[in-house]
Amino acid sequence: MSVTIIIGSQWGDEGKGKIVDLLSADVDVVARYQGGANAGHTIAWGDTEVVLHLVPSGIFNKDVTCVIGNGVVIDPVAVLEEIKTIRSLGYEVEGRLLMSHNAHLIMPYHKKIEEARERARDAGAIGTTGRGIGPAYTDKYARTGIRLVDLLDRDVLRKKLKESIDEKNAILSSIYGAEKLDVEAMIDEYVEFDKLIDPYVTDTSAYLNNALKAGKRVLAEGAQGSLLDIDFGTYPFVTSSHPTAGGACTGLGIPPTRVDRVVGIVKAYSTRVGNGPFPTELDDADGETLRKVGHEFGATTGRPRRCGWLDLMALNYTSMINGFTDLAITKLDVMTGMPVVKACVGYELDGKRLDRFPNDITTLEKVVPIYESFDGWTEDPREARAFEDLPSAARKYLTFVSNFMEVPICIVSTGPKRDQTLSSMGTPMVA
Ligand code: IMP
């Protein structure tokens, strides 16, 4: 096996961190390919729980090298803070963490512009995480961004920063009436960051391709979810990168021919944080139960997540875009005790049944979900050690999901801990 990609199949927060941590036991390299510190990947073992925003979730496996690829936008403050936390837990980072010299930097003005833009949008706000992601990718594609490699040469850095800040100051003060930024103070600050980040910076695409040539196994860790993809998500209520499978190749500089497994992470129900259409959203006691029992509050922002039933129309769409080879179902335990469990198997629009997921938001906002109902279960699935140990009603629900999506299930997570996981090492437990 060469490259396995881990993808969030919904709107993010599917529990990818735990699955990456689990699968990293069998790989040599774990690489993040898009997004930035907007992600919040939670990993728990013993009494320890850590939330990573930028460093790949494989860092707690000592034999694994972690890569932050060219497709990621790096906030130096956030990454240095995370390195400190990882070290404090007894894990060495230098020599095990590599950052692409082509990755773009999040600058303080990106956060300021995002904040001002969201405020100006008012009721139409996207509900971003406030980490400067959109404006940083805007600069990347406008070809005015600052990359890690630019930190190496003070003159280049000064010139680029000056040009960028002059433009940003004009935007901040004239369009948004916000305060101007100080160029010199920012240069001093980023020169300091450079000293600390320098040991980690390299050509990660060359590193990854050499590793693959040497027979090493790479896990590409997606952040956010497919329905937040800039092209395939519910635009404009999306993030500014490609969390989908194609993003792994461009975000790491590895060829698609190296990819042999694409694992779709599917939470047993749906959640969404931020604004935008969500056909199966529940505004009732069931939604409240999922939020409370599932601790559905943002790992990055602390915002309560919107909760709803599983949406198989949306999942068949993201499975088509990503080509899932198998599924990892997460947070099954959260639904324990619900008398009835539902999954959306179709949409109706103006009395007509739709045959596919419409990703334009005007249509999606109007669709009426059609549900299939299942008996709930009361037995605790967290103690199960094999698929057969799960409550029979839970097995029925999962078998239906797998059949509907025509994708086998190879992993079921039944609780937050490492040992609360049923894994068949890539062989279908439900096919
Ligand atoms: P941004 O990525 O901060 O620009 O936010 C754009 C949209 O993506 C907002 O709706 C966010 O709530 C959502 N989003 C960004 N990162 C995550 C994540 O890691 N999990 C879930 N939603 C996210």
Helix content bin:
25-40%
CATH class of the largest domain: Alpha Beta
Please, how many domains? Answer: 2
User: Cα distance, first to last residue?
Assistant: 21 Å
Task: Give the strand order, joined by hyphens, for the main sheet.
Answer: 9-7-5-2-10-1-11-15-19-20
CATH topology of the largest domain: Adenylosuccinate Synthetase, Chain A, domain 3
Global outline? globular
Structural class: alpha/beta
Which blocks of ≥5 consecutive residues have pLDDT under 50?
Answer: none
Main sheet specs: 10 strands, mixed
Number of discrete helical segments: 12
CATH level-four homologous superfamily name of the largest domain: Adenylosuccinate Synthetase, subunit A, domain 3
Share in β-strands: 15-25%
Number of strands: 20
CATH architecture of the largest domain: Alpha-Beta Complex
Cofactors, ions and other ligands in the entry: inosinic acid
Work out the radius of gyration. Answer: 22 Å
Indicate the mean pLDDT.
94
What are its keywords?
2 domains, binds inosinic acid, 12 helices, alpha/beta, globular, ten-stranded mixed β-sheet, Adenylosuccinate Synthetase, subunit A, domain 2, four-stranded mixed β-sheet, Adenylosuccinate Synthetase, Chain A, domain 3, 431 residues
